[in-house]
Amino acid sequence: MMTNDKHDIRTRLIGIIEPVCEDAGYELVDLLYRREQGGWTLRVFIDRLPGEAATEAIGFSDCEKVSRELSAVLDVEDPVPTAYSLEVSSPGVERPLRSAEHFRRYAGETVKIALN
Questions:
Q1: CA 81 from chain center: how many Å?
Q2: At what angle do helices 60-77 and 2-23 cross, to 10 degrees?
């Protein structure tokens, strides 16, 4: 039952967070919602939209901007039934491939596949 609940929350979070990121000029790469040592964490990974200064790395100010915008929307939508910490980050070197577009963009590159 918890797996379905977490899947439903994840799907709802993507539906809320993705448009906010895109409106702010970023791409939602992935998100993680899970219980960690300090409680529940919602970790959002962002990158530049394809073709828009894609060579420029995501910095602290980018994460701060998206975090402020997401906090406001998530407070109104209230999609998560528990208290949580919001973290916004770049995807880093081991960037997850979540969508068909991600897979197309990195076709021909070496990837590591993990099934959860």
A1: 19
A2: 120
pLDDT in tens, 75-116: 999 999 899 999 999 887 666 676 777 667 667 777 777 776
Contact 109, 95 (CB under 8 A): no
- CA 54 to each of CA 17, 64, 103: distance values in angstroms, whole numbers, following the listed order: 20, 19, 17
User: Left, alpha or beta for 85 (phi > 0: left; psi -120 to 50: alpha)?
Assistant: beta
Q: How far apart are CA 85 and CA 71, in angstroms?
A: 10
Please write the tens of the pLDDT for every residue from 8-39.
Answer: 898 999 999 999 999 999 999 999 999 999 89
Supply 31's token pair. Answer: 């998100």
**Of 70, 25, 76, residue with least CA distance to 47:** 25
